[in-house]
Amino acid sequence: MHQTITKIGLSLSLMMLASATYAQTQPATTTTDTAVEFKPSGKLWGYAFGDYAYKGGTDEFNRGGSNQYTKVPVNSNEFQWRRIYLGYDYNISAKFSAEFLLAAEDDWAAGTMGQSSNTANTSTGAVSLGGYGDVLTNNKFAPYVKLANVRWKNIFKGADLIVGQSATPTFAKNGSGMAAEEVWGYRSIERTITDVRRTSSYDMGVALQGKCGKDGNYGYVFMVGNGTGAKPEGDMFKWYYGDIWAKFMNKKLIVDLYQDYNKNAWGVYVKGNNGPRYSDRNMTKLFVAYTVPKFTVGVEYFMNTILGDVTVAGKDGNTYYRTTKATGLSVFAKGRIYKDKLGFFARYDNYDPTGNLSAIADNANTKTYAASTSQYEPTTKEQFITYGLDFTPHKNIHIMPNIWLNTYGSGLSATGSNTAGTTYKSMNSNVVGASGSDVVYRLTFYYVYGK
Q1: Rounded-to-integer distance, Cα 360 and Cα 312, Å
Q2: Which residues make Cβ contacts (< 8 Å) with residue 369, sequence separation at least 6?
Q3: What are the phi and psi torsion angles at 153 (to 5°)?
Q4: Each residue's pLDDT tens digit, 89-108
Q5: Of residues 173 and 211, which shows the higher confidence score?
Q6: Which of 45, 57, 231, 424 has the most other CB atoms within 10 Å of its CB?
Q7: What is the CATH number that goes with domain 54-449?
Q8: Which uninterrupted H or E stretch holds 199?
Q9: In 3D, which of 331, 333, 329 has the Cα closest to residue 388?
Q10: How far apart are CA 33 and CA 276, in angstroms?
Q11: Are 205 and 216 in contact (CB under 8 A)?
Q12: Contact 294, 335 (CB under 8 A)
């Protein structure tokens, strides 16, 4: 009996050894041989940045539209969050994933400090928000839904379909890894030049995103959206976005070309000689960057034409609509000073909306004028400069002393008059010949979690 059990055990051992030897000599099973079991998974992530800021100089004419420091008094100082993100990415299946993001940002209103943008009338109970800040009526910071979308991966070879509220092509991580905001890399310091002018960075709609070429060195993003960001659609018009990009020189050089188009008003009747009002906008943007591990340089240039955006009150009593032609140029550099612990960044922007100003202001019939799109007021030129250091004690922690400087000038004369002799200084608040600056000294802190 004992010998029989021994023989059986020996036979089983030899069979197992032979099986293991055979398995080791066979090629590994690939995903084409048998399907790999997919397990749904999700990831919570986020980041936050804010500053201690001291305003050392202010533009006495309060130009700058909805820039964060417009109208803030000189010598003001504050600790303030400027953005807090809480996101969740979820892999539904091998073909589908979802993205969700809550954002609390723009915690300010022109001419106020911090969150004090709301005022209440105690006699009537009425509340006035009085600014642009994302704050509640009790002045507390308010998060909102910034992104909520589902991605259908590889809907056809090399392309994904995104449905819902997502980043637009000019800001999206479009597959190049080098879109303008990604390459600049310091959104915690300032928006890109097109974002400063409030080109939609996210929108509700549908987008197609893809790569092509042997090494994925070429790609595209196309999108149709409401053009209203996180707000519901407010008209019948849609915003059309397109972006194509390519990498060269062993992926060190990126060239990115962007175009958008949107109707603002079309065939709206206006009393006067012009008849119906027609207004639309189209922006063309070129971004070029060169990047290596130790330093990066980038150039972003845009041209934006907004048809019929400027409302002109004529001396003849009629209303006319004129076109805004604006350009912007942004040049930046960043790099490492000491390993991965200390870096630098610097940027210069030049914004000029006066491309059609002479046709507006020099018309002898012009009494007053005003832009419908506040970020494209046609008179005030701006130049922006920022520079600073980036101390990184951990890869997800940044402490950045920096200077934020925005200067303003006028496309009209020092008296605020045009060649026809009409003075606009008392008629349009942004029409002044004098220059001015908003100067802010900041210590910015930025941290990332879940990544």
Answers
A1: 8
A2: 310, 311, 312, 313, 322, 360, 361, 378, 424, 428
A3: -75, 140
A4: 999 999 999 999 999 987 65
A5: 211
A6: 424
A7: 2.40.160.10
A8: none
A9: 333
A10: 65
A11: no
A12: yes
Amino acid at 87: G
6-34 burial code (b ≥16 CB/10 A, e <16): eeeeeeeeeeeeeeeeeeeeeeeeeeeee
> Residue 41 corresponds to which tokens in the numbers above?
């998974």
Q: At which residue do the structure tokens 């003075």 appear?
A: 423
List the one residue out of 223, 229, 283, 224 whose CA is nearest residue 259: 283
Provide the pLDDT confidence category of residue 135 given band limits of 50, 70 and 90: confident
Instruction: Report the 10 Å Cβ neighbour count for 380.
Output: 24
| Euclidean distance between CA atoms 164 and 145, whole angstroms | 12
For the stretch 61-87, what's the b/e string if a residue is b when 16 or more beta carbons lie within 10 angstroms of its beta carbon?
A: bbbbbbbbbbbbeeebeeebbbbbbbb
* Inter-residue contact 169 to 242 (CB < 8 Å): yes
Asked if residue 346 has pLDDT above 90, the reply is yes
Domain boundaries, the chain: 54-449
Q: Are 42 and 20 in contact (CB under 8 A)?
A: no
Output the CA angle 136-140-145, nearest 5 degrees.
65
CB-CB contact of 312 with 370 (8 Å): no
Within its chain, how far is the Cα of 332 from the centroid?
Answer: 16
Q: What is the pLDDT of residue 198?
A: 87
pLDDT mean over 38-49: 94
Please give the DSSP secondary-structure letter assigned to residue 214: T
* Residues 219, 258: Cα–Cα separation, whole Å: 12
Q: Please state, as a whole number, how many other Cβ atoms lie within 10 Å of the Cβ of residue 325.
A: 19
Q: What are 190-247's pLDDT values in tens digits?
A: 999 999 998 888 999 999 999 988 888 899 999 999 998 888 888 889 999 999 999 9
Collapsed DSSP state (helix, strand, coil) of residue 408: strand
DSSP 131-149: SS--B-TTS-B--EEEEEE
List the structure tokens of 311.
């409302």
Structure tokens at 277: 């009002």
Q: How far apart are the first and last CA of the chain?
A: 63
Q: In a 3-state reduction of DSSP, which class is residue 45?
A: strand
Query: Is 446's pLDDT higher than 50?
Result: yes
